[in-house]
Design brief:
Structural class: alpha+beta
Number of helices: 12
Strand content: 25-35%
Number of domains: 3
Oligomer: single chain
CATH superfamily of the largest domain: 2-enoyl-CoA Hydratase, Chain A, domain 1
CATH architecture of the largest domain: Alpha-Beta Complex
Length: 408
């Protein structure tokens, strides 16, 4: 095994790195000894493939919570996820300190309908502990045939653990929905996949061409775990006339990539309020940060998740690695990594209490965090009054848009 590792090392390393050859040999010799010990003496027999995959995962996951190795199966699942349709429960999860953490539920999925919340963490799946379970194992257990059930044991804040039974369903990423509430267009974006920008454009076009166009808009990014960088840039560009949207900076000083807006505001400078909360992460934070820094929107809600690192997918053989290569920076030059976006107007959930503030899970809570289906028509099953009475944050956002419209 060691000779294969050394062959790999010498093939891919630059000549300048050979000064460290002696130390590299020593470290790889230690790796080889550990590998052989595990191979020959571990209580359960493991194949070379299993051991190598675990070694790769260990190396990458020890760097930060978002770097990982994806074998062929996981890589294919990732490609399906970003295309906008997959099977499962409808939750965005991660691992942290040996547990399965929920970043956010996906709109209109079994998890969302059952009341799963951002910040919850799962302790058991069908009664089996998830302690030290890796992400692939958790996903494999939670995914299954449509119509079958699984019981999640949840811990939320200081509440006692409780069980939630979910029925698996085909998850279609309805990434954009729209409705009109009190003359205000509400654009709900639940994730940033390949359909998001086109879905948002379609929604705005329908609202703008209606008999009574909205006086302004609310862009609802609450519990949106992020997704594709390109989509976050193009969504931001829909509302901006010019200027920087986001910059990405790597390990080298000159390793900077800047994304800028092109002329053309799709809503013609109408009032815009962006709603965020502790479940708004990554691409959501790029959009909120860009619109905030350009004074194009008022940001309302709660402080966002704080996931400001950039991952690249590098195909290797039949699998791939997800590797953190840079950090996002808002137009003002601020990094949101482990910090998040502070809203201009803080609006807590109606049921939020002091305890919730201490048990909100964000990027900075990671042990290894780095430093600093589009639908047609509106949802009409509930009246505007019903919706706004149940959603305090949205009610405040709608009021804010109306106020800005009057002032303008």
């Amino acid at each position: 095994m060691l000779k294969y590792i050394l062959t790999f090392f010498f093939f891919f390393h630059s000549p300048s790195s050979f000064a460290d050859t002696k130390e590299t040999y020593r470290q790889l010799s230690i790796f080889n000894e550990v590998y052989n010990r595990v191979k020959n003496q571990y209580v359960e027999e493991l194949t070379d493939k299993e051991l190598v995959e675990k070694a790769l995962n260990g190396m990458l996951q020890a760097l930060d919570p978002h770097s990982s190795y994806m074998n062929e199966e996981i890589y294919k699942e990732m490609q399906v996820d970003t295309s906008g349709s997959f099977g499962g429960l409808g939750i965005e999860i991660t691992t942290d300190k040996g547990f399965i953490k929920i970043i956010s539920p996906i709109d209109d999925t079994p998890a969302d309908k059952a009341g799963i919340q951002a910040g919850d963490y799962i302790t058991h799946l069908n009664g089996d502990s998830v302690v030290d379970m890796n992400l692939k194992e958790a996903i494999d257990l939670m995914r299954g045939e449509v119509g079958t059930s699984i019981t999640l044991t949840i811990i939320r804040g200081t509440e006692d653990p409780f069980d939630v039974e979910l029925i698996r369903d085909t998850i279609k990423m309805a990434s954009v929905k729209h409705r009109v509430l009190n003359d205000v267009g509400v654009l709900r974006v639940s994730t940033f996949n390949e359909q998001t920008t086109s879905g948002l454009q379609d929604s705005i076009q329908k609202l703008e061409e209606s008999e009574n166009p909205p006086i302004g808009y609310v862009l609802d990014l609450r519990n949106n775990p992020g997704g594709l960088l390109a989509e976050s840039v193009s969504v931001s560009d829909l509302f901006l006339e010019q200027g920087e949207i986001v910059s990405i900076r790597g390990r080298e000083k000159n390793d900077v990539q800047v994304y800028s807006a092109k002329k053309g505001d799709l809503i013609n400078q109408k009032p815009l309020v962006v709603l965020i909360n502790e479940g708004s992460a990554s691409a959501s934070e790029i959009v909120a940060g860009a619109l905030q820094d350009h004074n194009r929107a008022v940001i309302m809600g709660m402080k966002s998740f704080g996931k400001g690192s950039v991952q690249t997918i590098v195909p290797i053989d039949s699998g791939a690695i997800r590797l953190t290569i840079a950090k996002y920076y808002t137009p003002s030059g601020d990094s949101i990594q482990a910090v998040g976006i502070e809203p201009d107007v803080v609006v807590p959930r109606a049921e939020l209490n002091i305890i919730d503030n201490y048990f909100t899970f964000r990027e900075s809570d990671y042990q290894d965090a780095l430093d600093n289906e589009t639908t047609d028509g509106n949802e009409e099953e509930a009246t505007s009054t019903d919706i706004l009475e149940k959603d305090y944050q949205l009610s405040r956002a709608v009021d804010a848009v109306k106020t800005i419209a009057v002032l303008n």
